[in-house]
Hints:
The protein is mainly α. 66% of the residues lie in helices and 6% in strands.
Amino acid sequence: MTPDLEILRLKDLMPASGRMSTRIVSKPEQTAVIVGPAAANLWVRLRQQEKPIAINFDLWARLPQPQRDLLLLREVSWLSESNWFKLDLYQGLAVAGLLGTLLEAIQVDAVGTVVGGALTAVSVSQVWRANQGTGSQLAADEAAIRVAQRRGYPEPDAARHLLEGIQSVTKLEGRSAPEFTDLIRVQNLRSTAGLSAVAVPKSERSL
């Protein structure tokens, strides 16, 4: 596989919004098959208009094309679905709490600093959960499947390819077992693909 040709093909596969907001880079030294910018690195997300998606093409080439397509669309969808900088209640509270904490610290107000710090911590944890929790992961999978349908994949086939891609990546990366969130994603994809009658409970989507 020639990385440059595969990058061009994947760019054509992406939705227009993905082509504008992401860029694919070759990272042969990484142990992961495909990975976006670290979600915890808010500075990267803030300063970079184009979010890098790094691919180890030596490992990537071992996957069938349908799996590669769905894994790439899923990564692009997750980056598009994340709302780290969408100003909602918790983002607003986090910013207000941080500014309040700094102000109280400057004024050497111990009680105010503790309260402001607590408010910031709670708000940031809610923002993290909204963007990293199971619900956001499932939403990214479903968004990728919708894009794949516009690229000619029937919904059950797209779900099956993504499901198999998750399992293949686990083996290629040498992980003994999928992470808990991946297990929930797998079950949801099995349901969408018609391989299981058991759907993911709504309670899991709020995590």
